[in-house]
Design goal:
Elements lengths: L10 H18 L5 H15 L2 H13 L4 H6 L11 H14 L10 H10 L2 H23 L14
Helix pairs in contact: 1-7, 2-3, 2-5, 2-7, 5-6, 5-7
């Protein structure tokens, strides 16, 4: 499989990605736990069918010490007993935030309240921002049909 464009090699894409990467860095540097960040990235990428991002974030999470069992169960997190209540709240918010078009009301008050029980204001801002950023990355890669499988952990710094 070949990508439709050499998106990552084009100067305009470089300008766009610079801003997305800056937003991602702000979230990465926040107090939102890194494990929650990776789980959210993986789940949104699964929902959006972004193989490139799913490959990247599962490999990065594994390198950071995430277990194969938890990585294998992200797609079925509701039925899995391996996630904390905070992680479950973040995954629910990520799902609802990713599937906005599927729900007339967007993110439910219940999902928001559950997340607010586990995360402080800065962490909620980081979580909302992360959901927005990973969805943007997913869309770039899905539209461009960016191939998955060759990512090496830390490849993008």
């Amino acid at each position: 499989m070949e990508s439709r464009l050499n998106y990552f090699g084009h100067p305009l894409a470089g300008k766009v990605l610079k801003h997305l990467n800056s937003a991602n860095k702000a979230v990465a540097d926040s107090t939102l736990p890194p494990v929650v960040q990776e789980l959210v990235k993986i789940r949104a990428s699964q929902i959006n069918g972004c193989g490139f991002c799913t490959d990247m974030h599962t490999k990065d999470a594994a390198k950071a010490g995430e277990t194969a069992q938890r990585l294998n169960l992200v797609a079925a997190w509701r039925e899995a007993k391996v996630f904390t209540e905070a992680e479950r709240a973040a995954l629910e918010l990520a799902e609802q935030g990713t599937r906005i078009a599927d729900a007339a009301g967007g993110v439910t008050d219940a999902a928001w309240a559950e997340a607010a029980e586990h995360f402080d204001e800065e962490q909620l801002i980081a979580l909302v921002s992360l959901i927005a950023v990973i969805n943007a990355y997913n869309r770039v890669n899905v539209i461009n049909q960016q191939p998955a499988g060759d990512y090496q952990p830390g490849q993008f710094g």
